[in-house]
Design goal:
Layout (H helix, E strand, L loop, with lengths): L15 E5 L3 H12 L3 E6 L2 H8 L4 E4 L9 H5 L4 E4 L9 H12 L6 E7 L10 E2 L10 H20 L3 E6 L1 E3 L5 H7 L4 E3 L7 E3 H13 L6 E4 L7 H12 L6 E3 L7 H6 L5 E2 L2 H5 L10 H13 L1
Parallel strand pairs: 1-2, 1-4, 2-3, 4-5, 5-7, 6-13, 7-11, 8-10, 9-12
Helix pairs in contact: 1-7, 4-5, 6-11, 8-11
InterPro entries: Epimerase_deHydtase, NAD(P)-bd_dom_sf
Keywords: NAD
Protein name: SDR family NAD(P)-dependent oxidoreductase
């Protein structure tokens, strides 16, 4: 474990992004920075995915909970920008557990560190708006794990001088992960719960927010990453069906819906998440300000 998989491209900028968890969201940033001349490296859990990402020019390392990088000094050497994108498990954040000391040692050379969290630490707000300054009161186990991970990274940042930024992501969608795809796959459900609203964010807008933060670093900052219009989930499914020219699935009362424990847990919280800070502090202009623009841009991709 931990040996690089061929695919790294030599760059001339001297900048290097390392992503613990080079997945759906992290790759959106990796592509942007690669185009700017950054070297990009990261981790994933399986060889097949590592090979696919290496083919895109990224230096890949295998890493998973209980399987740390075999040579962390070599893998992390030269890193100027660090993205932490692995969800915490019952034992906490795997990257923190395995490599907190190695990451702390990088502090003198790090220009920016980003941790991808979720809006879970805010808990249930009964549909009210929340900003980054709202009290944190997670109401699910996943939310409590996220808050614990945030606090762990904050503590390390304070002790080691890491330029940490926390990004609380709303529900992520994009190519291959959206309501159009769910309708085409026959898995979409139009579950209705009175007063339920979710905030969302297109994966490419996540990349834009992270890129903007790197251009304007503000260590210690927390940013909500979401679009302009929180909406009931059944409305999004109905709009996706409209784009496909088909009838939407029938509405199912939440109490009667057959949902997995994880899917049901999403309905335990209802809140409207404010994105004012990414607009005012980072100058971000979202490419997909609501789910409508996002799905409009995805329909051709998903149907061809």
């Amino acid at each position: 474990m931990g040996q690089p998989i061929d695919g790294a491209v030599v760059k001339e900028t001297g900048k290097r992004l390392f992503c613990f968890g080079l997945g759906f969201s992290a790759e959106a940033l990796a592509r942007r920075l690669s185009e700017q001349g950054f070297a990009v490296a990261g981790t994933c859990r399986g060889v097949e995915k590592a090979v696919a990402l290496a083919a895109k020019g990224f230096e890949m390392h295998l890493f998973d909970e209980g399987h740390p990088l075999a040579g962390p000094a070599a893998a992390l050497g030269g890193t100027t920008h660090l993205l932490l994108s692995i969800p915490p498990g019952a034992a906490g954040d795997p990257a923190f557990a395995a490599h907190a000391r190695d990451i702390a040692a990088l502090a003198p050379s790090l220009e920016w560190v980003g941790y991808l969290s979720t809006t879970g630490p805010y808990g249930d707000r009964g549909g009210d708006w929340v900003t980054e300054d709202a009290p944190l009161a997670p109401s699910t186990e996943r939310g409590r794990r996220r808050l614990a991970a945030e606090e762990a990274w904050r503590g390390l940042a304070a002790d080691a001088g890491l330029p940490l930024h926390i990004f609380r992501l709303a529900g992520i969608y994009g190519p291959g992960r959206n309501q159009i795809r769910s309708l085409l796959d026959g898995t979409a459900k139009r579950v209705v719960k009175e007063g339920q609203v979710f905030s969302r964010i297109h994966v490419e807008d996540i990349g834009a927010v992270l890129e903007a933060s790197i251009a304007r670093p503000n260590p210690g900052a927390v940013y909500n990453v979401c679009d302009d219009e929180p909406a009931p989930p059944q409305d999004v499914v109905a709009y996706a069906a409209l784009l496909l020219g088909r009838e939407p699935p029938p509405e199912i009362p939440f109490e009667k819906a057959e949902l997995s424990p994880m899917a049901r847990s999403f309905y335990a919280e209802s809140k409207r998440v404010s994105n004012r800070r990414i607009r005012e502090e980072l100058g971000v202009l979202l490419a997909y300000p609501t789910y409508r623009e996002g799905l409009d841009a995805l329909v051709e991709l998903e149907t061809n």
